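Hi all, posting the design record for the shared folder.

TITLE: backbone redesign
STEP: 1 of 1
STRUCTURE INPUT:
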């Protein structure tokens, strides 16, 4: 089941990391999460995790909206 979830999620990870600089931001956010985790600061881990997920979802929505707009314009 985990392997299937990984396969299904891979396309979104790739799409999310396409724009220049996005991979560095993701690495920075993950490093901050790890730092908070190692410090056993549950509140900060929670806040950073929610912020990271929320920003990722917003990024993906923007990416897919752009693809839709370009696709619609290109086919018109």
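Okay, here is what came back for every position:
SEQUENCE:
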């Amino acid at each position: 089941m985990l392997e299937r979830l990984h396969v299904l999620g891979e396309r979104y990870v790739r799409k999310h990391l396409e724009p220049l600089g996005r991979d560095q931001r993701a690495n920075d956010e993950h490093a901050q999460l790890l730092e908070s985790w190692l410090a056993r600061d549950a509140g900060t881990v929670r806040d950073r995790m929610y912020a990271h997920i929320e920003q990722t979802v917003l990024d993906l929505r923007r990416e897919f909206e752009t693809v839709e707009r370009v696709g619609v314009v290109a086919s018109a």
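COMMENT: The mean pLDDT is 89.
Let me know if anyone wants the other runs.
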